[in-house]
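Model it.
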Amino acid sequence: MTRPTRRGAFAPGGVALASGASGIWRSRVLVTIAVFTLLITGFSLAPAQSASATDYPSWADVLAARNDVAKKKAEIAKLQALLAQLEKAKQDTEAEAIRAGDAYQKAQDAFDVQDMKTQEYQKQADEAQAKADDSLKRAGQLAARLSRVGGGDFTTNLFFNGADASNLLSQLGMASKISEQSKGLYDRAIRDQKTAQALTDQANVARDELERLRDIAEDARIKAQAAADAAAAALKEQQDNNATLQAQLATLQTGLRHTESEYVKGVQESYGSGSGVVEISSQGWARPATGRVTSSFGARVPPVAGVASFHHGVDIGAGCGAPIYAAHSGTVIYAAWYGNLGNYIRIQHEGDVTSGYGHIVNGGILVHNGQEVVVGQLIAKVGTTGASTGCHLHFEIRQYGSVIDPVPFMRARGIVIQ
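Modeled.
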């Protein structure tokens, strides 16, 4: 598989100015900010005010307006409105992405709760059926014994086998008791079978509800990813144009020529592949992060109020900003906010297995939905977003949609997490 191009957060900056008179240029930037109107669990967001094919002022317009009071005032107002519009679009789409991610996690949690119920109902039904089968078998064995003991011509047997008469009569006496026991066992077998059938019916109803919740969770995932994509588009639009607009505004307000670079603050962190040694097993699985397990899979005391008491993964105590690697090759099917798990990535692998990575630092998701990744690829940076008390990686594995303990799963594939 070809290693895909790494994609990080968008870097800030604008189009650099050329020097001299030839540097006075005019550009018409086509804007496509898709602000999705979503309806997830009863809430929706009206589209932010944004236009496609927005006309941004050119430097020729700005420089020409410097010596005209009326034009300068109008141009300043236009620039301020554009900056406010870009900021509002960014804030609205980010807020919607968070709401949609929260809704997705709630839908997934509802599925997980029902999944555990369904598994328990099926376990009880299987145990009841095994008990019913055993009861039927024992009743049948007693019936067969009764048939063997009481069969034939009893009078003839007593006449020609006088020596054994007392033994035969004793057996017949026992046959009567066996008959009573056999009837009792048969009645119990019937009751056990009815119980098994009732539990099986209950498990089937639970399974139907599970499928319904599975569809709801999948729909919520798609909507949440769409909201995250819209937020990313709005952020890119702002970053692509903010520096130029700020420079133009300062030029009008001060009368001095400014450049975009003066308004680009900070340097975007560079996420290189050489950020650590990745442990990859001979079976093609990688350790997702360094550090010891700080919280295991299963029942636990919630670390934060409102968090479920059943832990769906393991927490790996990696430090803030530490690299997170893809546990196995696959396709990213979600890369966005995810409720209590904060910024989150889910990767689809073969065999209907998915891996999940939670609490990623803001700006630390380095892959996007639909991207092919390879085992050991740097996909994110450790953070403490969502319901978290400190920097760590929440790592989870799902098989056929159900959460399972990642530790034995990874151990069977040559990666020890402890």
